[in-house]
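Hi R.,

Here's the chain you asked about this morning:
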Amino acid sequence: MRFSVVSGCVQSDPTLEFMLPIQVSDLPDYAVLKPDPYIEQIPHGDAQKGGSGFAVGLVRGFAIFAFLITFWWLAVFWFSPPAFILPGPERVFNALYSQFDYLARHGSITLLEIILGLVAGTVLGILTALLAVSSPLAGRAILPVIATSQALPVFAIAPLLVIWFGLGLGSKIAMATLIIYFPVTSSLIDGLERTERGLVDLGRLYGASRAQTLFLIRFPAAMPSLASGLKVAATIAPIGAIVGEWVGSSAGLGFIILQSNARMQTDTVFAALVVLAIIAISIRSCVSFLADYFIHWAPRTNQTR
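And the predicted structure, written out as tokens:
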């Protein structure tokens, strides 16, 4: 029987791509998978179907949304602030309905910027992490640059990106890429560096080269860390696109927010924020679903369900 080596244990799972032709009798005790009552596997079928957890999360999200709307309405009813300071939910819903085409057109531009930035930041982050781990010299040169780039204020970098890439999509995609790049890179580097030593030694025992050890042992074992970084990146991705639109643009939700705020059209500002929240939650949910689908073999504690 052939066994797969992932996340510190050997599993007889034929669906995994990485396979080592080894026998159970050849393995040390710590490398053989043993039942753990506190750990459960995510069934591949549940990930494929979405699982009951998705429905529970959806119901929970609607309940929280209803609570916030009720609290908002009560605050407006009780304190009666001017509409330009805090419009009521009905005014915001009316703005959403009456300006739906306008918000959808600009929202689609922001969505495109976020998706392209997420893809670019993910690819660049993965390549950087692999380079930093495969070469100690490259790692010592790259990591300080990454840390320095994140120490700089976002609003200080955005004008430079507008100058370099123009007022179109380029500067917004570059800004979103810069925001996404750090969590993806840092999480993957951490995962690659924390691969169990027993797995690396086992690969070397069977003659695996450094490249095979990196791509066939360390990278698969680091995929849960990469998934965590991608979830964080998907959550903060809209920040880069919106900041880029604030610095200079003629389209997008950030453009709507600036224009409406200058005209004291607070209901339109809130409507744009609602659309932005829907985009952010949708992207985060898609990334989480895909992570559970492709990394269904990763153990998950019952307490986090």
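The CA atoms of residues 13 and 93 lie 50 Å apart.

Let me know if you need anything else.
M.
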